[in-house]
Amino acid sequence: MGKFLNSYAPFEDYKEIAKTRFFVDKTMLLDEMISSVAVDGQKYICITRPRRFGKSVMANMVGAFFGKAADARAIFDRLKIAKSAQYGQHINRYEMIYIDFSRMPRNCEEYTQYIDRIQDGINHDLMEAYSDLELDVGKAVWDNLQTIFERTKDKFVFIMDEWDAVFHKDFISEDEKKNYIEFIRNLLKGQAYVEFAYITGILPIVKYSDGSELNMFKEYSMATRAKFGTYFGFLDEEVDRLFEIYRQTVSNPYITREDLRFWYDGYYTKAGERIYNPRSIVCALSDNELTNYWTSSGTYDSVFSYIKDNVAEVQDDIALLFAGEAIAIDMQEHAATAMRLETKDEIYSAMVVYGLLTYKDGFVKIPNKELMDSFASMMKKEKSLGYIYNLANISKKMLGATLSGDTERMAGILEYAHDTESPIFAYNNEIELAAVVNLVYLAARDIYRVEREDKAGKGYVDFIFYPQHRNRDALILELKVDSTPEDAIEQIKNKNYALRFKGKLGEKAVHMGRILAVGISYNRKTKKHFCKVEDITLLQISS
């Protein structure tokens, strides 16, 4: 065993994960990988996914299963892969070289330090394991591996986690990034000693190389390839099972199943299956707390970093996305590798690759509350967003005016918003009005769970504001163009939208505050907004 050759670390890491309470068995990925190599002859596999979608867990699983470092049957005998006819033929049968490209040497300030740690480390491991072959630590790794193959016929499984970590390091130049691509090519491409190679990361590997350097890899991304889609992220039924474990093992469970959907669902595989961010699900259930686990650990977590070079072109789309609308794009995954994102397609494609937007059938959306909060934070602090920033920062006043029934002030704020020069303020339909209303109520998201077009009573309501604390007032908001706020209020009453609070809020506690019906209308002829707020608490109680 060595640091890279037959490392014990993947086995130990996966063993610890497999013992946890909220472990999900994804081992049939191994069966599909074996078939891809043995049946289809595809021995170079690259699976890319956004951050926090279990890439490292799966890389450790692959290493624990194929590598010779430790007998892994105690782990895998009880998992799904054990039922495969291929199980016994492949478990712990291979010499394995495992590289975590995110690991850096101490005080690393230049590319040569970074790559020498990997080359020298592998060479030292090989020299120790094959001490009788007169290997040379000063030679290229691929030369020593070729010597081993020629003398022993040994082949190697290569597992490379976070292959793209180098591209997020400021001290590595563009020329050095090309050298890095060349290093991977020399190590793997056309080499007889490669049994198979599994690479995972965020960025598309083949599209990063501008020639044929890495074209031996077959790449599987979340947005554009269906194969392997269900192995990264949690499916609905998997979250159902984890939630039952949570309910049975937590003394005072705070989270509801609907909470998990609202906070962490919203991503899709290419085949259309809904998937949840696995890290956030596990953290929420382990902590018994709903919060934003999309903790920043780099510039690629910042929403603004993607749009900062072309705010003007995406400004209106951001408002629509934040209102829950979908935006059509031409998906260009390679855009995530660009130094500068300029077109909308490039910007949104990069945000899909990094998990900040979800993609389905040619459209992008903000997937869930966790990411909505990230967008909201950006909108409140980035002045270059113009009218979005201005409206976000008067949203506390709008909420206060609504709760106090100050309809004149509400209409005044909406007039202020309408004076902004933007196509979405033309209010050609209720979607555009909804986008504006969503902005002027942004502050409400700090104390409410805001849901759009939620099933309520006998129909669908434009917005429902579910208070996070039982004594706060709840809001039901209906929008009308070329109608009146009174018509909006009547619709809220006639369709019994208030009955929705008997369900969702009742999952945690009886709602004790008021229920306010809020009607907002815009007259395209007079260019005026009209608002009405009515307490309908008694209507809900008597229903």
Structure write-up:
43% of the residues are buried. It is elongated, with a radius of gyration of 27 Å. It is of the alpha/beta class. Among the domains are: 9-231, Rossmann fold (3-Layer(aba) Sandwich); 234-287, no CATH class. A hairpin with a 5-residue loop joins strand 7 (267-268) and strand 8. The protein has 22 helices and 16 strands. It is 40% helix and 16% strand. The chain has a five-stranded parallel beta sheet with strand order 2-3-4-1-5, covered by helices on one side. A five-stranded mixed beta sheet has the order 12-13-14-15-16, sandwiched between helices. Strands 6-8-7 form a three-stranded antiparallel beta sheet.
Q: What is the number of beta strands?
A: 16
The total of helices stands at 22
User: How would you name the CATH homologous superfamily of the domain at 9-231?
Assistant: P-loop containing nucleotide triphosphate hydrolases
Query: Runs with pLDDT <50, length 5+?
Result: 505-510
The CATH class of the domain at 9-231 turns out to be Alpha Beta
Overall helicity: 25-40%
Summarize model confidence as the mean pLDDT.
Answer: 88
Quote the distance from N terminus to C terminus.
70 Å
Any idea of the CATH topology of the domain at 9-231?
Rossmann fold
CATH architecture of the domain at 9-231: 3-Layer(aba) Sandwich
Structural class: alpha/beta
